[in-house]
Amino acid sequence: MKHIKLGVAFAAGVLLINIFGCAAVNEVPMQPEAKKLIKSSNVVVGINQQEIYAEINHSNTTAAMGGGLLFALIDSAVDSSRTSDAEELIKPIRNALIDYNDSRNFSSAMKKELKGLDWMKLRKLNVDTNLDPAREETIRNSSKDSIVMFTDTRYYLSADFSALNIITNVRIYPKTKELMDVAKKIDGNNAENPLLYKHTLMTIQPLKNAAGTPEERIEAWTKKDSHIRDALNRGIAQISMDLVEDLERKREEAKEKLDTASLSTQ
Question: Both 164 and 66 in a single domain?
Fold first, then answer.
């Protein structure tokens, strides 16, 4: 099945927000000189999400009417109702995923792809289901490896239940002085904790037959020929392959990609 691959420039201002609620400033491409300095790497695959959810189309009465507390309350009530409806509708899909191990599948796919990067010298890859900024800092400070890579992922169905979306944010921190020097050259705005690499990946796995009502689409996701598990497996594999592809991107290609993304968000 064809997938749609989107990078950091997708939906400007939307994909540039990670699960910690911090807006990403810029993409940081991996540098060839950094790869030569890596002796070992520690990868932490963050999967905080407990179950799949569906996005909602947020009410925008406040914006349409020029603001005001009353309209904000209307928006809040509408959003609450839509969230409640989506939670009820998605139950059959959650039941179909009741024993699906997302963290195991994601870590397995990630390990398979990253082990193919000789320069990364992968020493350890662990799953963390409670990753937040404080825990990330603790892991980073205690690591003895050359680099520490963190990923955080969320997955959800579109508001009309016609597609599965998977978004993964990736950050690589340097741990040696030599790698820190490289990072400061490319991530100068973050002097205290410069990054060697930062990127947001997204894949969209559409439902094979998206015709019909939301209820019919939900039923289709539980059928053998278009099962939600298969879509998740494809999406996880695609994200992992896309990450390796981006890490291997040559410096000139990475810079061109970064410039394009910057222009598209202006």
Answer: no
